[in-house]
Amino acid sequence: MVNPGKRMNILKTLLNLRHGPGAAILPPEISRLHMDFALRWNDGHMGPRKFWKTCLPRLKFWNPAVPMIINRSSNNAGPATLSIYFRQAAAAAAGPTTPAGSAPKVNFITPLAQQPHSSTANECPAPPPEEGERVVTIEMKHQHSDAILQDFLQKTGATVLQPSPDELNEMRQAEDLKDRAAIDRSIMKKYIDDKRAEERLLARAREEAEAIRLANQ
Length: 217
Prior knowledge:
Elements: H1 4-18, E1 24-25, E2 30-38, H2 46-62, E3 68-73, E4 81-87, H3 89-93, E5 133-139, H4 145-156, E6 159-160, H5 165-215
Helix pairs in contact: 1-5, 2-4
């Protein structure tokens, strides 16, 4: 049986994935996303990198079948763009709808096995929109990840998700456990440091006693 501390850590990881920056349901007319930025963070690519690491996992969690392709290269002088592909109104009308007052639904569009792959060698640049699509581009270079997210939410009209009261309580419990664990680690570290210091003093005392014994022979 998994101990309570380990279960709480797993719960905290899940809650962190479910809620936070990027936790949002994309509207059904969003057909795919494409990010293009450099492998290294310098020269204006820090914001795109942070958006990719913190926001995109939550977007993918809530929209698992929306392809989200990442194309990275070693060219830091190049652009950093986020391309949002929209179905035209006629195509989007055939997609799933959310009744008024009901909870937003997770998009299920393309089977995961059929989604294209990302690249770290600049092999998957943003494709042109297909027939029945239009593309909106966000220039991410030299932008903070929060600014990129706000621009993204505004342009997509995504529904931002908030944790429920039960989830908020679980998040507080996870934070309390983290604080207690930090205190426990500090106490244990002090105990180990004190024990090692005592052992060093005893070893030094033994060496001095042995030196005195040898000197008196």
